[in-house]
Amino acid sequence: MAEFTMELNDEQREVRDWLHGFAADVIRPAAAEWDEREETPWPVIQEAAKVGIYSLDFYAQQYFDPTGLGIPMAMEELFWGDAGIALSIVGTGLAAVGVLANGTEEQIGTWIPQMYGDASDVKVAAFCSSEPDAGSDVASMRTRAVYDEAKDEWVINGTKTWATNGGIANVHVVVAVVDPELGSKGHASFIVPPGTPGLAQGQKFKKHGIRASHTAEVVLDDVRVPGSCLLGGKQKLDERLARARERAKASGGERVKNAAMATFEASRPAVGAMAVGTARAAYEVALDYARTREQFGRPIIDNQGVAFQLADMRTQIDAARLLVWRASWMAVNGKSFTAAEGSMSKLFASETAKQVTAQAIQILGGNGYTREYPVERMHRDAAIYTIFEGTSEIQRLVIARTLAGMPIR
Ligand SMILES: Cc1cc2nc3c(=O)[nH]c(=O)nc-3n(C[C@H](O)[C@H](O)[C@H](O)COP(=O)(O)OP(=O)(O)OC[C@H]3O[C@@H](n4cnc5c(N)ncnc54)[C@H](O)[C@@H]3O)c2cc1C
Predict the structure, then answer these.
(1) pTM of the predicted model, to two decimals?
(2) Sign of the CA dihedral with 201 first, then 186, 339, and 60 last
(3) Measured in angstroms, how far is the CA atom of residue 15 from the centroid of ligand 1?
(4) Mean of the pLDDT values across residues 153-159?
(5) What family does this chain come from, according to its entry (predicted)?
């Protein structure tokens, strides 16, 4: 087990500086253009692939860093560059983690390379769980997967929504109901391979922020996938369902209800780190502006009203980073989240990003309100952190129930 440390080692510093260079030289200069275009920034993803930032190897290396700081450090730097572009670069990771967590070695080896493609032909992947009537309440999911034993195929029907890279992905990972009696315990994940008939993009959403990241509905109409596309395989699924049915019987046959709350402690700090990146970016712009903008014959930072705002912004950002780093260290070192520390880190960092980016606009005055300066975009981008991967209300629910010793459902 690695001791908790806030000191980056030489290797981590080198990686951080390299990522920061990419964020400053490639991502940040492209941010305004792709925000306006509201399109996936394929050339930037390709640049990231060329230098090795868009690859499973890179994220796996960071993930297995025993200090736990690899992933938060990478997320903070990339999202410091720009949130929409960075999400286009790391969004495939959501689907890849779904396969890594539940797939067999063969599935991992077959599908993850197809999710990323290569530098000459980059691909993206999508993780499709949310539905129009099943957002926070994942147990209400309706997309159904039925096994056709004669053909050893699964037939999937339903509509997914809010899928990052939905419809433009080479590989879609789709969560579907295989036993409706078991609530979220009756869900399973499937690979939908490239070009599978019946999968189509529905509405592409025009968004408030992170507009360089593609978000869309995914419609599944009699989508047939081979049995080998069930993540983890049929035997493992049958065993898991049998255990869940036993437990449901023991609890008086009550339908098992289990919302999107329980299992995300380890992944939520990564979203917190994205929020820290956006907040830090806005704070830096505001600090620089406050030092150089003069009114009443002196820099505006000479006014306590402005300087104290900057002091609070920096304090909150540093506090958010500490919560994120602690939770990431706990996740990598197998600590149990007895106070929902992962949710805590995401809650605090995402609320900080919203607040700090709003303060940055205020410090830049009229300029802050225009698209000539980046803080307006950063504020729009920051709003997503309190919504996806569990809203702030859901984080509070998880923390409160954990503290109370109540079941999280
Ligand atoms: C840009 C973007 C990208 C996304 N990417 C993906 C993706 O790649 N894959 C994917 O599967 N999903 C994705 N999502 C979906 C995201 O995770 C959901 O939007 C989120 O979980 C909230 O669900 P909802 O939008 O249905 O809101 P709802 O669950 O309807 O919530 C609406 C409001 O009610 C509150 N609320 C709900 N239940 C409670 C409660 N019990 N107590 C208190 N308050 C409550 C919420 O906090 C919120 O304020 C994405 C969403 C967005 C906007």
Answers:
(1) 0.96
(2) negative
(3) 33
(4) 98
(5) Belongs to the acyl-CoA dehydrogenase family.
For residue 83, give both structure tokens: 């949130």
Q: Is 386 in the pocket of ligand 1 (CB under 6 A)?
A: no
Does residue 95 have its Cβ closer than 6 Å to ligand 1?
no
User: Are 62 and 144 part of one and the same domain?
Assistant: no
Q: Which atom of ligand 1 is nearest to the CA of 175?
A: 11
Find tokens 């609070």 and name the residue.
312
CB distance 129 to ligand 1 below 6 Å:
yes
Mean pLDDT of the chain: 94
- Gap from CA of 384 to ligand 1 centroid (Å): 10
**CATH assignment of the domain containing 142:** 2.40.110.10
State how far the Cα of 78 lies from the Cα of 276, in Å rounded to an integer. Answer: 11
Integer angstrom CA distances of residue 41 from 27, 55, 105, 214, 220: 10, 16, 31, 9, 26
Q: Is 174 in the pocket of ligand 1 (CB under 6 A)?
A: no
- Looking at the fold, whether 140 and 33 belong to one and the same domain comes out as no
Give me the DSSP letters along 206-267.
Answer: P-SS-TTS-EEEEEEEEEEEEGGGBTT-HHHHHHHHHHHHHHHHHTTTPPP---TTTT-TTT
CA–centroid distance, 79 to ligand 1, in Å, is 21
Which residues lie below 8 Å from residue 310, measured CB to CB, with a gap of 6+? 283, 286, 287, 290, 301, 363
Q: How much is the CA Rg of the chain, to the nearest whole Å? A: 22
Structurally, the chain folds into a number of domains equal to: 3
The closest alpha carbon to 118, from 50, 62, 59, 193, belongs to 50
> Which structural domain range is residue 90 located in?
10-122
Could you give the CA distance from residue 100 to residue 92 in angstroms, rounded to a whole number?
12
Closest CA to 282 of 87, 82, 89: 82
pLDDT digits (tens, 9 = 90+) for 200-244: 999 999 999 999 999 999 999 999 999 999 999 999 999 999 999
Task: Pick the closest to residue 73 from 163, 165, 5, 1 (CA basis).
Answer: 5
389 among known catalytic residues: yes
